[in-house]
């Protein structure tokens, strides 16, 4: 097996920052240890990523009892200059699908995304 094939099996399109944001968008009260386990990175790495996302204003954290609740601002632009004309809500919309129809009376996963 060539080194390019071995390397080719390792890369992915999404960064861990995008993965963490998607997990939080799906469940705004998710525990960071559950995000870490689902993505396959350490809890400390998730904590650092959440801090990065907060500093860049993609999300805010609100303390609710002993838990955190996260709210995503879908209007914040993506960071790379070639994608800066797109808000993060476009990325989230591409990956999140409404699981509940409007007539069920329950909010779908997009409910985690704030104004």
Automatic annotation (TrEMBL):
It comes from the Bacteria. This is Transcriptional regulator. SUPFAM superfamilies: Winged helix' DNA-binding domain (SSF46785). Pfam families: MarR_2. GO terms for molecular function: DNA-binding transcription factor activity. Residues 16-65 form the HTH marR-type domain.
